[in-house]
Amino acid sequence: MPSASESKGASARSTRSDAVRNRQVLLDAAAEVFVASGVDAPIREIAARAGVGTGTVYRHFPTRADLVVAVYRHQVEACAEAGPALLADSASPFAALRAWTGLFVDFLVTKHGLADAMRADSGGFEALHAYFLDRLVPVCAQLLDAAADAGETAPGTQAYELMRGIGNLCAGSDDDPRYDPRRLVGLLLQGLRQAE
């Protein structure tokens, strides 16, 4: 029979794991809502998507900026971790690159409005941008190198320039139903294909 201290320790671990799980659910829900409605979406919409009360959201993220930054970091990590997994699981390195750029575009859509949400903290925004580059440029480079090594793309494309180009294509999509950045990103990727 477990002692009182063992039971208390197990209960604390369970509570911590529940809190971590709740935080992940909130971050996933907030990311989905931000993609659909922007970073100014009502907190109650995020809470409803996560299946919690608004108080739970505020307990984890006291301000909107806290939530936006947490979603940003969460998505950077998800995008960074997806690259190697896609390389391992995709039919080809180019297919992995295409799938990863789709995730990257989703991330950029969520990121839209971050600057406004963090306007008062330019140093914080710069630190996040550096974090974004440090985590994602090497992943994109790995995907590009694998595609070039497989003869699927022409060598020489730099990860930073590809990511910046995709970012520039996504920046033009503000509330214009006639503009589809995903189609243009697809054309950009097709332009990387090695002539057969």
Distance between the termini: 69 Å
CATH superfamily of the largest domain: Tetracycline Repressor, domain 2
Q: Into how many domains do the coordinates divide?
A: 2
CATH architecture of the largest domain: Orthogonal Bundle
**What is the helix/strand order?**
HHHHHHHHH
Count of DSSP-assigned helices = 9
Tell me the total number of β-strands: 0
Structural class: mainly alpha
User: Which CATH first-tier class of the largest domain would you pick?
Assistant: Mainly Alpha
What is the percentage of strand-forming residues? under 5%
Largest sheet: none
Oligomer: single chain
Q: CATH topology of the largest domain, what is it called? A: Tetracycline Repressor, domain 2
Average pLDDT = 84
| Rg, nearest Å | 20 Å
Catalogue the unreliable spans.
none
Which overall shape is indicated by the principal axes computed on the Cα atoms? globular
Give helix % range.
over 70%
Organism: Streptomyces fungicidicus
Protein name: Helix-turn-helix transcriptional regulator
Can you walk through the features of this model?
The protein has helices at 4-37, 43-50, 54-60, 64-89, 93-111, 114-117, 122-149, 159-171, 181-192. It is mainly α and 196 residues long. It has two domains: 1-62, Homeodomain-like (Arc Repressor Mutant, subunit A), CATH 1.10.10.60; 64-196, Tetracycline Repressor, domain 2. The radius of gyration is 20 Å and the shape is globular. This is Helix-turn-helix transcriptional regulator.
